[in-house]
Amino acid sequence: MVGFKKSSSFFWFNKNKIRIAIFGAGSAGKELFETLRFNSDYRVKFFIDDDQNLHNTSFKKIKIFSRERARYELKIQGIDKILIAISEIYPDGRSSAIKFATECSIPAKVIPSLIELERGTSEISSLRDVQIEEVLQRKPIAAMPHLVDGAVLQKSVLVTGAGGSIGSELCRQIISAGPSKLILLDNSEFGLYKINEEIADFKASRKADFDVVPVLGSVNEPQDLENLFSNHKIDSVFHAAAYKHVPLVESNIVSGLRNNVFGTKNLVDACGLNCVQRFTLISTDKAVRPTNVMGASKKLSEIIVHSYRSRYPNTQFRSVRFGNVLGSSGSVIPKFQGQILNGGPVTVTHPEVTRYFMTIPEACQLVLQASALQHHADIFVLDMGSPVKIVDLAETIIRKYGYLSYISGEPRPSEKSIEITFTGLRRGEKLYEELLYSGTEIETEHPFIKSETSKSWNTSYLEEILNKLQCLIEINDEPKIIDLLKSSGLDYIPTSTN
Fold this sequence. Notes:
By secondary structure, the chain is an alpha/beta fold. The chain has helices spanning 27-36, 67-76, 91-103, 114-119, 132-135, 145-152, 165-176, 189-206, 222-231, 246-251, 253-273, 293-307, 332-341, 360-372, 390-400, 459-474, 478-487, and strands at residues 18-23, 42-48, 58-59, 62-65, 81-84, 108-110, 128-129, 156-160, 181-186, 211-216, 236-239, 278-284, 316-322, 324-326, 346-348, 354-355, 357-359, 379-382, 388-389, 404-407, 417-422, 442-443, 449-452. 39% of the residues lie in helices and 19% in strands.
């Protein structure tokens, strides 16, 4: 029989009894109840279950209610937390329970994984918070192992920006797929230290047999890359290093272009000259009809990658384009969470602004698979699902924390509520992002990876644009840089500050 270890301590510390409802009156829910009976700080008030045969019955004198009845009881009994005792092997039931708790604006926690329960290693304190991707009801994407193997198995792999949100997750998935060597390149000492330590722990715990090489350096320094490629035979490169925060790049145009455009060019040249098998650029939906310098820099990076294929025919160059990832550095979600914990207000730029979202592990899994697809394409585009209104996302996160939301200027519904204010679109921001230029996607062998053929540039014209851009960067002439980006064929139309 699986169950929780009984513990004299729990996960909240409060002098007052915490009133609990358990969603799930099956074996896991009953085990959870038995454990809570031994803790004087917590009181289970009732169960919630979808089984009609259990409605209005009791377990150990604790009533079992339907959802409809529970909505009423949650309010009148002042429930503080809902504990979801539904295993992950029933994903639809668990997702539905999470949605119920969110709609009721009651904070929720979920039971540990079935593996932890079966091993008997799970303390009651290991009930975890509901993750935002669970609240957003994203269905997990199944991997195609042969594609992941084709990208990294027994290969020497370089990840740039290895300490960042995307780069570090790429590293985690790569080491699980059995590379011969993983080279971590980052210009952030702290970021590099963190991911290197994490991989060292992984190697020790799994007794994994691959080499790890942390390199403190930059794609902006050709000498760093020359040293790196001369010292290591590299098979695959994943280029995640970039400045991605739109308002910061708008305020630091020269640094953004130097890093994103010329860093990519330096790396493309190094890969081509050293006959690297695969080069994959991490791109963004902001490269489609860009309205900001970050998007324009990534569009120009895509063009460099695709235009240099003829120069370096021994390397397979491709780009993978996707939208926002949940929880990345600079993401709106950690910002919202911090604002909620500080009592609000939560700031949203515009009531109609929408964005595509995907989890970081999903995006990285698909990047690895796209890099190995036997499909002739310039750009691979990840299926991000439907776009999400940011104000709806803000409301959902507020409810996840147990609060009600209201728009600035409206009556405050209760003391336990968080205000949402609209601040206006910032310079370079769009209401809507796009993933495709033409709106026409081409199927690949992977159902969640599409492709698009980009507009090719004559290499001599590209070199002319890059030379002009380099000269303007050297003299820090931002107005002429903007004029060049606008006139060069990038479809760049900057927006002004609201």
